[in-house]
Task: inverse folding
C-alpha cells in the first residue's frame, strides 16, 4: 500500500486550493502564485532558506500563507514550531490579519482542509513599527525581530 507523505499531501492540497477552491470563490488561477507556493513548501519541508522575487499581482501573500498553513498541518512531528512571517508594512500585516486569514480560514474550513480557523497574532504592536531604514538595518544586525511580524500557530 502506497501512503502519501505529508510533503506530497501538502503539494497536492496546494494544487487543489489554487486551481479549484480559490477560483470557486472568485479568485483567478495564477500560475506564478502556484509555483511560488510549491517553492515555499519545498523550503519549509527541507528546512531551507528561500529568497523569492515576484512582481505585483502574482499573489505572493496567499502563496506564502497557504504554504505556511499546509506546512503547519503536514509537517513532521519533530518540527512543531510556529511560523513567523515578516511583512514590509503594518498595512500588509493588518490586511493579512483582517482580510487574508479570515477569507482563507473560511475557504479551508468549508472544504474540511483545516479543522479550526487559522490562528495568528501580531508579534509586535503596530506602534513599534520603525520608519527609519537605518534603524531597521541595525535591528536586523542585532538579530532582533523585524518591524512587522505575524506569528502563525
Result:
Amino acid at each position: 500500500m502506497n501512503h502519501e507523505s505529508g510533503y506530497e499531501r501538502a503539494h497536492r492540497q496546494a494544487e487543489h486550493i489554487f486551481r479549484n477552491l480559490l477560483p470557486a470563490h472568485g479568485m483567478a488561477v495564477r500560475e506564478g502564485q502556484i509555483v511560488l507556493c510549491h517553492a515555499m513548501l519545498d523550503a519549509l519541508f527541507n528546512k531551507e532558506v528561500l529568497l523569492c522575487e515576484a512582481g505585483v499581482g502574482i499573489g505572493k501573500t496567499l502563496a506564502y500563507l497557504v504554504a505556511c498553513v499546509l506546512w503547519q498541518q503536514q509537517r513532521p512531528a519533530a518540527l512543531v514550531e510556529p511560523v513567523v512571517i515578516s511583512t514590509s508594512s503594518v498595512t500588509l500585516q493588518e490586511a493579512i490579519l483582517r482580510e487574508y486569514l479570515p477569507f482563507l480560514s473560511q475557504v479551508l474550513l468549508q472544504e474540511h482542509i483545516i479543522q479550526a480557523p487559522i490562528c495568528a497574532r501580531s508579534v509586535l504592536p503596530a506602534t513599534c513599527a520603525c520608519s527609519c531604514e537605518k534603524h531597521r538595518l541595525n535591528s536586523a544586525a542585532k538579530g532582533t525581530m523585524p518591524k512587522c511580524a505575524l506569528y502563525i500557530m
